[in-house]
Amino acid sequence: MREFYPLLVVGGVVGVFSIIFIIAYLSIKDKKTALGFDRNMKDSEIARRLLVYAKPYIPNFIFVLVLMLFSIAYDIASPLLIGHIEEIISSDFKMKTLLIYVAIYGSILLVSLLSTYIQSIVLQKVGQRIISSIRMDLFSHIEGLSHSQLHHIPVGKLVTRVTNDTNAISMMFTNILVNLVKNVFVILGVLSAMLLLNYQLTLMVLCFVPFVALFTVIFRKFSRKAYRKVKDGTTDINTYLSEHLSGMKIIQIFNREEKKKAEFDEKNRRLSRSKKEQIFVFGIFRPMVYMLYISSVLCLLYLGGRGYIRETEFLGQTIKASTVVSFYMFISKFFNPIQTLAESFNFLQSAFASAEKIFTIFDIKPEVVDCEDAIELDTVRGEIEFKNVWFAYVGEDWVLKDVSFKIGAGETAAFVGSTGSGKTTILSLIVRNYDIQKGTITLDGIDIRKIKLSSLRRQFGQMLQDVFLFSGTVRSNILMGLDGVSDTEVDEACRYVNADRLIAKLSHGLDEEVRERGNNFSAGERQLLSFARTVIHKPRIMILDEATANIDTETELLIQDSLEKMMNIGTMLMVAHRLSTIRHADKIFVLSHGVIKEEGTHTELLEKKGRYYNLYRLQYEKKV
Ligand SMILES: Nc1ncnc2c1ncn2[C@@H]1O[C@H](COP(=O)(O)OP(=O)(O)OP(=O)(O)O)[C@@H](O)[C@H]1O
Ligand SMILES: [Mg+2]
């Protein structure tokens, strides 16, 4: 009995730790959701959809699997070889045999290293391709969403989907899946090799497996909790950052720096606390598996050593020195993959959660789409008609009520009215940013819902209320990807809309850098650039939603002059706040709460002495 004391000590230590962990496990309450995300899709569905992206690369994956056999072969062959070398040294020593074995070992190692290297190159390439096609699909899907759908998803969230979440999936293809497969094979291979070497010692090693399984289950519960906290904290910080960085100017104006700093500090601390918790969980799990490993090594040395010394024989297998050496190496090759497997499952779960979030976005069906028999329009005359149009952004909250009007080809129409009366809405309906609920909108007599979206929008040049410039150069912002335009044409367009003086003032001219959202340009300058952008695209119909921003008188005159010129290009629909701008319009519509109250030319409306007349007087008197 006494000879089993060392084994009892090992068993006791392992048992005590197990009991402590089981108690901790039972006392922790954990939500049942996987990693804190409300999962709606089945894992099988996510896997099926991911497979669609992986399908073109199946040959590559098969190639990797074949290469993997070489690296696994090393894991299994090397302990056996080392065992043999040990035997050669301890018995009748022959230098030549030793050298041969060392050479064999070296070659296997080399082949395995090489195959691992090629594997990772192939996988990285495949992973990047898969991920870039998912990213591409996601981006073009988002491009196809209607304005109202886009309003419902915060930009920060979309960015996270396109970047972070696709990265998690990439990790899955390049790393996790392959390691999972490899580890399963290594475990099976090592187990078979051990069984062939010695049943008893293998059984001894297997005694530790239930404990590894137990620790893994416990670890997963804790790590899931820690992981969820980290993920929540990261999202929290990201959302806070994206909102506050864009609103930084307001924070400074209202002197709220200290307060915001304190808020950020709190979020920052919370994230770092949960990160530490996560590290702590891993910090406990890894040494625990290591403890099991060491315990099994101790048992091996004790039992194997005794067996060797006493030359024990069991079912025809004697324990040799080489058996002990090989087993010693096998045990580490056995425990390593088990530990990695547990961790890989966590990553896999997180990748699936990311995939689900991406697929949820894919599942949003674009609202404004081409109808089946949509027609292509080459050139249009530019006649626009609204017939009894009713429109609401939400439910029955009508923003436009029974609006009808007709604008002839080449005419200039202007919409005026108080703020919120529906002017911008009318302009966005013409280009089908939203679909109307009742009535029809026609372009050259054709219902715009029957025209292909791309060919409909190609006819329009839109200058919106808040001019959006992209980071890049002045030139890239004017061209917006238009090919085959010479600098002379760009210059001409700029001169046409009076933006030439602005560009001459810039130290790099057309190559002047435009920073994010064009914030290194004034509102008036941005507007002039947007005019140039529109003119160069030579649209048949122009839409202008003038900003209310204060523009200095000089720029105002420039804008007015260029607008008058642009009126000659084609049909023009404009919303202008300065009535002087629209004096020359062919038709003026006065809107109030989504209803057209008055229409006519500037002179006609003044004579009417109605709403327009009052508006005009208000502005005129203010100026005087
Ligand atoms: N995306 C939206 N979702 C819901 N309601 C909206 C949306 N956009 C505008 N509205 C509402 O529709 C109404 C008309 O808005 P619209 O932007 O057409 O006004 P506007 O006449 O252009 O005003 P302004 O002169 O201030 O630009 C407003 O009451 C506004 O609150
Ligand atoms: Mg508006």
Tell me the total number of β-strands: 14
Low-confidence stretches: 33-37
Secondary structural class: alpha/beta
Strand percentage lies at 5-15%
Question: Any idea of the CATH class of the largest domain?
Answer: Mainly Alpha
Give the termini separation: 112 Å
Helix content: 55-70%
Which fold name corresponds to the CATH topology of the largest domain?
Answer: ABC transporter transmembrane region fold
Query: Ligands bound here?
Result: adenosine-5'-triphosphate, magnesium ion
Strand ordering within the main sheet: 8-11-12-5-13-14
Shape: elongated
Secondary-structure map:
Blueprint: H1 5-27, H2 43-54, H3 58-90, H4 95-143, H5 147-152, H6 155-197, H7 199-206, H8 209-246, H9 248-253, H10 257-309, E1 313-314, E2 317-318, H11 321-362, E3 384-392, E4 398-407, E5 412-417, H12 423-430, E6 438-443, E7 446-447, H13 453-458, E8 460-463, E9 472-473, H14 474-479, H15 487-496, H16 500-505, E10 513-514, H17 523-536, E11 541-545, H18 553-566, E12 571-575, E13 587-592, E14 595-600, H19 602-608, H20 611-623
Helix pairs in contact: 1-8, 1-10, 2-11, 3-4, 3-6, 3-11, 4-6, 6-7, 6-11, 8-10, 8-11, 10-11, 15-17, 17-18, 19-20
Q: Main traits of this protein?
A:
Rossmann fold, 624 residues, 6-stranded mixed sheet, binds adenosine-5'-triphosphate, ABC transporter transmembrane region fold, alpha/beta, 3 domains, 14 strands, 4-stranded antiparallel sheet
